[in-house]
């Protein structure tokens, strides 16, 4: 869905909301940052991070590519289970980075050996509970399947952070091009009921439905938390400066 300005809506012009346009421009700056198979391999970042989670084949990687307006930023495939690492992408203009997107491996793919499933569920659980700079979670859900048991488990896992830290949460109903209008309306109603503390919207990479809306939402999340992150980074820098001063004055005294 295109987010129109009130005037455009009034006269029926397909004009895009300037804020949504800016959000899409920002999304287009996405570039690969790093990949990690294990949590401890992820860099500690002083930047707001937004994770894309959901069952295998739900369309997480395609969603990131669609938001970024890039064909092959994240690896998408017909074959489920293609994303097997946590892949991070930086966002920000002029080479600066003001946020990070995380593409997570999907869960629930039957052909994955049980041991790998368990290992992965543990890694993802730890990521969602302990990743300090995580500010938002986008749960991708194929509305033809609805929320699965593992989706519900994930919701349980993040609920305390949603309640205590204001972790943002959005359910994206992917592949909505496969639904009739009535099915889409019903699926959205159900998802909104299940999104306790968060939001839900329809999305289609194929038909470019809900893309502006999702980009704008993520931009809003980042705008909301950026001052707190800037403050933290400044405090850390000051701390470092003080300890360096301490070192140099110790050096001078010697
Ligand atoms: N019709 C339709 N197909 C889509 C849409 N989004 C993704 N797909 C297809 O769904 C399949 C899986 O997409 P991916 O983006 O690789 O899914 P994923 O969630 O990243 O999968 P894993 O990495 O295995 O967890 C691909 O064949 C995509 O082309 C959509 O909006 N509409
Ligand atoms: Mg993927």
From TrEMBL:
Determine if Cell division is one of this entry's keywords.
Answer: yes
- A single GO BP: division septum assembly
Q: Which keywords are on file for this protein?
A: Cell cycle, Cell division, GTP-binding, Magnesium, Metal-binding, Nucleotide-binding, Septation
Task: Show the GO MF annotations.
Answer: GTP binding; metal ion binding
Q: What does this protein do?
A: Necessary for normal cell division and for the maintenance of normal septation.
List the HAMAP family: GTPase_EngB (MF_00321)
Q: Which family does it belong to?
A: Belongs to the TRAFAC class TrmE-Era-EngA-EngB-Septin-like GTPase superfamily. EngB GTPase family.
Q: What is the official name of this protein in its record?
A: Probable GTP-binding protein EngB
Q: Which organism is it from?
A: Xylophilus rhododendri
What lineage is on file? Answer: Bacteria, Pseudomonadati, Pseudomonadota, Betaproteobacteria, Burkholderiales
* The encoding gene: engB
């Amino acid at each position: 869905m295109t987010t129109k300005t009130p005037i455009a809506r009034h006269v029926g012009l397909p004009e895009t909301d300037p804020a949504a346009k800016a959000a899409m421009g920002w999304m287009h700056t996405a570039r690969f940052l790093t990949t990690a198979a294990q949590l401890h391999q992820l860099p500690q970042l002083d930047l707001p991070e937004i994770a894309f989670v959901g069952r295998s084949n739900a369309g997480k990687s395609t969603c990131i590519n669609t938001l970024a307006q890039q064909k092959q930023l994240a690896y998408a495939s017909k074959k489920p289970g293609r994303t097997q690492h946590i892949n991070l992408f930086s966002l920000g203009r002029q080479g600066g980075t003001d946020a990070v997107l995380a593409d997570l491996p999907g869960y629930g793919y039957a052909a994955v050996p049980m041991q790998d499933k368990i290992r992965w569920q543990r890694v993802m659980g730890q990521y969602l509970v302990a990743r300090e700079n995580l500010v938002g979670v986008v749960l991708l859900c194929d509305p033809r399947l609805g929320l699965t048991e593992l989706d519900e488990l994930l919701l349980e896992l993040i609920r305390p952070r949603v309640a205590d830290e204001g972790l943002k949460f959005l359910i994206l109903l992917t592949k909505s091009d496969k639904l009739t209008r009535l099915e889409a309306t019903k699926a959205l109603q159900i998802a909104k009921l299940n999104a306790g503390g968060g939001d839900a919207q329809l999305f289609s990479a194929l038909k470019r439905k809900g893309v502006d809306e999702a980009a704008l939402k993520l931009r809003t999340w980042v705008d909301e938390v950026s001052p707190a992150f800037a403050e933290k980074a400044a405090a850390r820098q000051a701390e470092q400066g003080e300890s360096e001063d301490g070192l140099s004055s110790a050096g001078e005294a010697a």
